[in-house]
Amino acid sequence: MPVDLERRGAVALLTLNQPKVLNALSPSMIEQIEQHLDEIEGAPAARAVVITGAGERAFCAGADIKNMRTASPIEARAFARLGHDLMDRIEGFARPVVAAVNGFALGGGCELALACDIRMAADSARFGQPEITLGIIPGFGGTQRLARTTSLGFAKDLVLTGRMVDAEVALRAGLVTHVHPREELLAKALELAEGLAGGPAWALAETKRLTNLALSGDHARNLANELDTFALAFATPDQREGMDAFLEKRTPSFADIDDSPNDATGETA
Questions:
Q1: Complete edge-to-edge strand list for the sheet that includes strand 48-53
Q2: Which of 42, 109, 193, 222 is deepest in the core (most CB within 10 A)?
């Protein structure tokens, strides 16, 4: 199986499992990630996701170049559409998604990490967008998400030169938020995801949705959306439970995902 799915309590662990090709993203791997996301979406007990790579060397070393080498522009666009759809889905997924970057995250692999909410890296990880060295450009959202996540100058440096940076440089640039020894990375990522999984599912999903809007769209509209969503949070059982637990000095026990009100949404007309 090119992608493994396993449950670790309330956390769904997705492992890209093609280490011989450095977990390169082929159409079949992208489609299987999508299928696993369907499974996770249909499992209320799975409340957070961790994505990592199998093997000692790579999280994901990009798209499968053998698959792309002879592609026509139409075929290349279709492949890029698969990648865009996957990255958009991860970015908008209703559960928090943590990337545990255990090695090379290059090209599509860097773009996969960028689509996740929180990026944790092994101290041996390397990041880059080397597409320019192949005569092409990033095709899975890298020109946009890298600049939004770090800075325009840092993003241009990577996409125009194709150079790689190590985990410490990525940390300073804001590309990752945590760096750990490689042997500790997965445990640390699962620990963080378990903490997220214990949080209020509706509030987490809405916070993620609103934060994704922060660097795009109409600022005033985004603030109005936050205002409406804040009010709707008071229609959820999690609001009462969270505040009661705080006042009673105990750990809150938030509702299962299926128990969150379906009509509580922050969308404005």
A1: 3-8, 11-16, 48-53, 97-101, 118-122, 178-180
A2: 109
As a whole number of angstroms, the distance between CA 144 and CA 159 comes to: 11
Q: Domain 201-259: which CATH class?
A: mainly alpha
| pLDDT value for 96 | 98
- Spatial neighbors of 171 by CB under 8 A, at least 6 apart, are 121, 177, 178, 179
Indicate whether 57 pLDDT > 60: yes
* 56 catalytic residue (yes or no): no
91 is catalytic: no
Integer Cα distance of 211 and 193 in angstroms: 18
Catalytic residue selected from 41, 56, 91, 111: 111
Write down the catalytic residue from 131, 183, 191, 206: 131
Backbone φ and ψ of 198, nearest 5°: -85, 0
User: 121 pairs with which residues across the strands?
Assistant: 101, 179
Neighbouring residues of 234: CB distance < 8 A, sequence distance ≥ 6: none
The DSSP code for 25 is: B
Q: pLDDT tens-digit profile of 59-107? A: 999 988 888 889 999 999 999 999 999 999 999 999 999 999 999 999 9
Overall fold of domain 3-197: 2-enoyl-CoA Hydratase; Chain A, domain 1 (3.90.226)
Q: Which amino acid is at 230?
A: F
Domain ranges of the chain: 3-197, 201-259
Tell me which DSSP letter residue 63 carries. B
